[in-house]
Amino acid sequence: xxxxxxxxxxxxxxxxxxxxxxxxxxxxxxxxxxxxxxxxxxxxxxxxxxxxxxxxxxxxxxxxxxxxxxxxxxxxxxxxxxxxxxxxxxxxxxxxxxxxxxxxxxxxxxxxxxxxxxxxxxxxxxxxxxxxxxxxxxxxxxxxxxxxxxxxxxxxxxxxxxxxxxxxxxxxxxxxxxxxxxxxxxxxxxxxxxxxxxxxxxxxxxxxxxxxxxxxxxx
Length: 219
Prior knowledge:
Elements: E1 5-9, H1 14-26, E2 31-34, H2 42-47, E3 56-59, E4 62-65, H3 67-77, H4 89-115, H5 118-139, H6 152-158, H7 164-171, H8 175-178, H9 180-189, H10 193-196, H11 202-215
Parallel strand pairs: 1-2
Antiparallel strand pairs: 1-3, 3-4
Helix pairs in contact: 1-3, 1-6, 4-5, 4-6, 4-7, 7-11
């Protein structure tokens, strides 16, 4: 029986992008269903009744929720091609640690930059660079976070790159000036077809963030 794979997603979601990259890396055909997050579909509410959030991967009728859990699931189910997590238990644990760091720190600090003003925004800017300096330290001189090949941590972080133009414009700073290694790494990741075809245009994301700021009364 052929696998039936459906992805419930929302185009600018850096979390959904992770799943799209993982599916592309594995060469898995799937049905993409765009969600309207203001008017969530009955399917989304049925498949993720706890969080009611995207992304949700539906594999042969069974849902898997939360982007990093979905990526691990994809890696375990379709293990014959493009492994995303390292095979060694210690390296796997390290990869999970850094992907968790991205989830806990990078999203919040990025969001603060376009949802705050004045002193709050300045504090967020400082925290943003502190977070990325830690990630630059972990990357070191390696081409990718896991070493020589694109993997789990790269996939977890690179999707934020599509939001960099919006973050820089509303935050009024240059990421490349402060964190050149991160930009060089992101451009290296973008040489991969799975990443280049998944990440939306940065200007399109900027327009979306601008609309969100208007809703929040920040414009």
